[in-house]
Structure formats: C-alpha cells, structure tokens
DNA sequence: TAATGGATTAACCGTTTGGTTAACTTCTGA
DNA sequence: TCAGAAGTTAACCAAACGGTTAATCCATTA
C-alpha cells in the first residue's frame, strides 16, 4: 500500500512540505530575495534534500509561479466567459475575486511582480494551453451597448476597471492604511463592504 | 566658483550619475535583485567609488525608495487637498496621475513592493513630515453627499476606486495585454483614452 | 535476513556579492 | 608651488549562496 496514514501523525509528504514552504518564502521575498536554506528550514529538512526533490532554485520557483498564476487567472476567466446576465456577472466576478484575494493577499503582488519581471515566460505558459479569448464577454458587452442597456463602453475598459478596483486595494493596503488612517479592523470592514459595493459602483457607471 | 560647466561636456556630477544608475537598477530588479557592480557599471565608475559616496547598499536603496515615494505620494495628496470643485478635482487627479504613471511606469510597482516589504519604515517616513490628513477631501465628499449632489458614498471608497483604476492597469500591463490581446500600440491608445474616461466613469457612478 | 533502492544528512566546493584597503590622481587654496 | 583634501582605482577579503558528494538511514521485498 502506498500510503498508510497513521492515526496520530497526518504525515504530509516531504514534497508537499517543500512546496508549501517554498510558496511561503517566495511570496514573501520574491525570487532573488528567497534563500534555499530558509525554504529548507521552514520545511524542516536539509538543504540537500531540497535539491534532491527539485533540481534547482529556478525550477522550484517556476513551479511556484505556475501554481500562483494558475490559481488566479482561470478563476477570473471562467467567470467572465460564463453565460450569466451582464450585471449579475459583474456582481459575481467582483465578489468572488475580492473574496479570494482577501484570503490570499500576497498572491496578486507576487504574480504581478513575476509577470512584469519575466513577461515572455508568462506569455508562453498561458498560450500553451488554450488561448484565453474573452469572446463571450466582449460580445456580451457589445450587445448590451447595441441594445441600449448600457452606455457606449469598450469591454476592455470595463474589465480593467473591475479588476483594478477588486485587486489594487490589497496591493496598496499599507498605503491606504496610512493615508486614510485605517486600522487593521477598519481595513477589513472596508474590504467587506467593497465585496458588494464595487459591483454596484461599476453598474451605476455603465447603465444607460 | 563651485561649478564651471564646460561648453562641450555637460559634466553631470558623479553623485547624480550614481543616483540615476541606482534608480534604474533598483526599479528593474528590486533591492535583493540589484547588484552594486551593475550600478557601478551603469554609472561608469568603480564599485569602490560607489561605497565612497553611499556607504552601503541599504543606505543607497533607502535613498532611492525615499525619492520614489516622494515623487508619487505628494503629487496625489496635494491635488486631493486642493480647493477645486469635486468633479473637477476628480478629473484633474485622474488625468495627472495617469499621465505621470505613463511616463514612469515602473515606479508604482516598485513603491508598492517596497512598502509591502517594509511597512514600518514607510509609516515612519511619512508621519515624520506632516501627517497626510485628507481632511479637505473627506469633508468635501461628505458635503456633496449632504447636499444631495452625489449618492451616499464613503470618501475612502471613492479614493480607492480612483487610485486603483488610475494605477493598476500599468502594473498589470502584461496580463491585460495577454488576456485582451493588446499590442503595445493598442495598450497606449487604451491608456490615452483612460486619461479622461476613468474620471467620467467615476462621476457617472457617484452622481445622484 | 540480506540485498536493493529511495530518502536524508553533514560536510564540502566554487562562485558571487557587498564591502574594504591602500595606493594613485586630480583638484583647490594658501 | 606645494601640501592636503577630495576623487578614483585595482586588488583583495570574508561571508553568503546555490549546488554537489559521499556516506548513512530505513522501508520494502525476494
């Protein structure tokens, strides 16, 4: 038998331990700031064992980046391409994205950083699978404009606005906290409110 | 005489050369990714001379961060605290911010990174000068709400939305380019449009 | 139970990196 | 004109770092 989960120790595999530790360290410090020794320490293993499982720092890093991008982008694209009614879609997209980012607040900055630092790698890794065409979303917006349900507006602009308002406050959290004098609790309350308010803000801005 | 600008060589001071080179390298690679040797090379000088002017990498880095934060934040706060009429203020803030970030597109990501990596240092460095109270802006929004000129809306939310839409598209540029299939020229056209459109988007969303 | 192969470790290695030293050059002012 | 200060350099150093080696541990199985 390949696994015999003891009743006392949950016994997480060493590989998972490493990946978890690597994710922590890379998200906190970035590629160049991360240290293989620290990853080993947090995983509770030897540094040599790290190279035994993942040949090099770069390989391990690319794996973590792939995981991070893979949990952020598909989530967004799938909802945008669903066949929900436009306003309902806006509400769902904003709500789900803010909820997810709330629980993974270091992820967006990490992903944005790495994609800016190494765009070619990113381009390849997403076009390798299916090219993320937002045809349905573009069409949906164009139709809503044509039917006069919303004001003339490019779907690209709409998308940028939604995503910006959903994600950026988490990246700029310390800045907003300082400038707006928000405590930790204040900030969380604010983000909780945005979960619904951002969508309504967008809808008011676009409806005819 | 302290300076005798030759007619042939403009003769930039070594210190400025270093700061310029350091800014380039730090913005591109971050603190841990930057190399003192590369900064020296780009400044066209010896590495020892770098330490002669700026004792350590950390000191040089803090200087660059200070300069970066100092060119981003005051610009925003001053306009927000000016006594322009609210809608006009929104138009001006968005326009000026997008224009500035267009010309310094690496700066926001750098600043956001560093502030997240080292929030205490940032908090100190801005509260040391005058504390950035946005009293005028908060009051202005509250009044506009009371007078029924705009819908009930917290000024914090309004500020976050404006700033997010102005800044984030530049940080997420490669992502948006990939997902929306935008060429370099397409992207620039889009940003040019946003220079005015974002403000109108905000105004439509908030007006009663 | 002995052999096999994967898992794990301590010790080590070569390179890179931030920083220093000591000497040399250039500038400045008395 | 010349002495001292400021500017600049090549060579060097110790620490940190990613990565390797060779030996040991340990579970499986024949």
Put the structure in a nutshell.
By secondary structure, chain A is mainly alpha-helical.
Total strands of chain A: 0
N-to-C span of chain A = 64 Å
Q: Please report which band the strand proportion of chain A falls in: under 5%, 5-15%, 15-25%, 25-35%, 35-45% or over 45%.
A: under 5%
What structural class do the secondary elements of chain A suggest?
Answer: mainly alpha
For the largest beta-sheet of chain A, the strand count, sense and barrel status come to: none
CATH third-level topology of the largest domain in chain A = Tetracycline Repressor, domain 2
CATH architecture classification of the largest domain in chain A: Orthogonal Bundle
Radius of gyration of chain A: 21 Å
Oligomer: homodimer
Overall number of domains of chain A: 2
* Poorly predicted runs of 5 or more residues of chain A: 1-10
Which two protein chains have the largest interface (Cβ within 8 Å of the partner's Cβ), and how many residues from each? A-B, 54 and 54 residues
CATH class of the largest domain in chain A: Mainly Alpha
Give the overall average pLDDT of chain A.
91
The number of helices of chain A is: 11
DNA-binding region (chains A, B): 35-54
Keywords (chains A, B): DNA-binding
Domain HTH tetR-type (chains A, B): 12-72
Protein name (chains A, B): TetR/AcrR family transcriptional regulator
């Amino acid at each position: 038998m390949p696994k015999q989960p003891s009743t006392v120790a949950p016994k997480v595999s060493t590989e998972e331990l490493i990946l978890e530790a690597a994710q922590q360290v890379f998200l906190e410090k970035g590629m160049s700031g991360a240290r293989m020794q620290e990853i080993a320490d947090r995983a509770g293993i030897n540094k040599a064992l790290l190279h035994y499982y993942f040949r090099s720092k770069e390989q391990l890093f690319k794996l973590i980046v792939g995981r991070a991008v893979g949990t952020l982008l598909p989530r967004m694209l799938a909802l945008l391409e669903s066949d929900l009614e436009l306003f309902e879609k806006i509400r769902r997209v904003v709500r789900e994205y803010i909820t997810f980012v709330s629980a993974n607040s270091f992820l967006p900055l990490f992903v944005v950083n790495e994609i800016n630092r190494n765009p070619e790698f990113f381009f390849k890794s997403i076009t390798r699978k299916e090219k993320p065409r937002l045809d349905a979303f573009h069409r949906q917006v164009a139709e809503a404009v044509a039917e006069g349900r919303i004001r003339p507006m490019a779907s690209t602009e709409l998308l940028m606005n939604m995503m910006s308002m959903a994600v950026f406050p988490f990246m700029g959290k310390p800045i907003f906290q300082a400038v707006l004098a928000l405590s930790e609790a204040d900030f969380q309350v604010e983000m909780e409110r945005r979960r619904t308010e951002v969508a309504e803000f967008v809808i008011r801005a676009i409806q005819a």
